[in-house]
Design goal:
Two copies of one chain form a homodimer. Chain A is α/β, with parallel strands linked by helices. Chain A has helices spanning about 45-55, 160, 165-175, 195-205, 220-225, 260-265, 290-295, 310-320, 335-345, 360-365; strands at about 5-10, 20-25, 35-45, 70-80, 90-95, 95-100, 120, 125, 130-135, 140-145, 150, 185-190, 210-215, 230, 245-250, 270-275, 285-290, 300, 325-330, 355-360. In chain A, helix 4 links the parallel strand 12 and strand 13. Chains A, B: This is alcohol dehydrogenase (NADP(+)).
Chain lengths: ~375, ~375
Amino acid sequence: MPEYDQFTGFQVKSPETWTTFHKQKFDAKPFADYDVEIKIECCGVCSSDVHTINGGWGSQHFNDGLSVGHEIVGRALRVGPKVTLIKEGQRVGVGAQSWSCLECRQCKNDNETYCAHQRDTYGAEWPEYPGIISQGGYSSHVRTHEHWVFPIPDELPSHIAAPMLCAGITSYSPLVRNGAGPGKKVGIVGLGGLGHFGVLFGAALGAETWVISRSRSKEEDAKKMGAAGLLATSEKGWNEPHKMTFDLIISTSNNFGEGFDLAAYLSLLDVHGKFVSVGMPEDSTLKISPQQLNGSGCLIGASHLGSRREMLDMFKLAAEKKLHSWVVEVPISEENLSKTLKDLHDNSGAVKYRYCMVDYDKAFGA
Amino acid sequence: MPEYDQFTGFQVKSPETWTTFHKQKFDAKPFADYDVEIKIECCGVCSSDVHTINGGWGSQHFNDGLSVGHEIVGRALRVGPKVTLIKEGQRVGVGAQSWSCLECRQCKNDNETYCAHQRDTYGAEWPEYPGIISQGGYSSHVRTHEHWVFPIPDELPSHIAAPMLCAGITSYSPLVRNGAGPGKKVGIVGLGGLGHFGVLFGAALGAETWVISRSRSKEEDAKKMGAAGLLATSEKGWNEPHKMTFDLIISTSNNFGEGFDLAAYLSLLDVHGKFVSVGMPEDSTLKISPQQLNGSGCLIGASHLGSRREMLDMFKLAAEKKLHSWVVEVPISEENLSKTLKDLHDNSGAVKYRYCMVDYDKAFGA
């Protein structure tokens, strides 16, 4: 009899074999007083999954195998005795973060994603259970502290809600924290998984939202999502008519190297406008001279996920405005995970605009 | 008879001979309806003067010679027929900017330093008078549009007020624009001309203001200026006790290359804290990965001078709080300008904390 309860997941054994998934059992963290145990229905596919399993973000805890996936929607099977935020049977979601101290100034100030002790939904050792590694949503179940479990509004189908739990909140948080709304002009660099939420939420919040993309190939989609227009950086003088008119640019770019003309993007910003990166490149550095920032007093920053409060607000907005993620559903299996993650690695720009693994009952039983 | 009125200045003829000053006449811009003609009393010495005359910031308009100096205090000799902001005989100052369009959104919004058409007090062609180059304060007189002429409060001696017109406002503007005040913790990187104003104004505004310096050699001075303390970056673990506690860091550093550990500075910032550079390096680039910004969602930016409104507010604060610049007075002459600017170039850290050229009457007549 195992020391721990066990769940089943589609796991990768090492970065060297990251395209091979093994359906196998793993030790679950012990069920604790504030935990919610969730039977998973579906899980969105995030580039973080690739960066983690291929070792691009550095070494990870693999042990016998690691399940990734952190855009999880499922049903609360049971809740711990101290849980007050979630009810048994409720449809709920879990995103990319599953732990923080909840006691520091950051945590007490709706900034728990910036807690110095924050831990990820997968690949992180649970502080209370050394040796037990958090496992993501390509699994049958997940156990998560209620603070990182979010009720899903009835208006949103599970596969539509799932990608909002990482890609959605990652775009939503910097928009609201930087005042995106009526009278503001917002640019979204890159129309992929993150970017399409930038447009959906930017427009829903009332900001004049523009897509900034290499070509015009996604212009029609952008407009359907609510964009005011698209700027194609491959066109000469693309930035000229819009210089110093943007209040905020959210960059989803993963590559700040060769060909990324930061100065051209910054030229779009109005006085003290902000360029906020939400992409997480494996190895890419922004190079700026103070002179480039000086002409408009603009700022360059980054943003990491969003708070519980923002997650609830985001779902409320999505439900009220009937915002639907653009999702490609893929039945979960060893083969399909391999194919999907390879695809995302090789050609992420072709996804329109988020994969979501579904059909969990077939893989794990009802 | 010359086509233009002429003033006398201490001019440099080319970047190759930047340490040689020539006392000579130059063409003044024609006196216009909104102009104030100022007989100069003194002028602070700014690193910009060096960067300009030695070519470090690129090519400049030298013509027969260029007078630099943009921390100018003097007496309004006469005012143009449309001038309403300045009275004849008033003691006034001129800073580093002397022109902008005054019609664009930036100009109309107290952001005239970010006007796309802004021009410097020296070395810039006057838009209305092609071929006539603006000349700075190492001269007998200056003619400036009233928007860039500021009454000096009686409480402030001229040589104390002068350095506030560039170094002062450069530090003051980002402090007030980023909320420095009671309950806020502010860091000032580098205790030089700019930095000492960062401390004086940061403390006067009510912020807990720390100096961040290589060594402790200026700690006593820092405290006299109002600093809460000094962090010495040469000490191991210097940033540890202060991690994620600063709301704002104003960097006066001119060198972001080897030895400048940006990540360590950023580690000091609280969630969405800002690192604002006011230094203007000749050739230095900040390198950041989004991951470095991501842990606190902090922002990196720059700031350029300050608006007329801020200039007036700054002088009011300085007068009320009896803030005195720390100034070393130097009688103006060819030899002394050469020595002073070479000194600033070679060993700017040794200046305590601003040179100001004085004794103009001896050089130019009463």
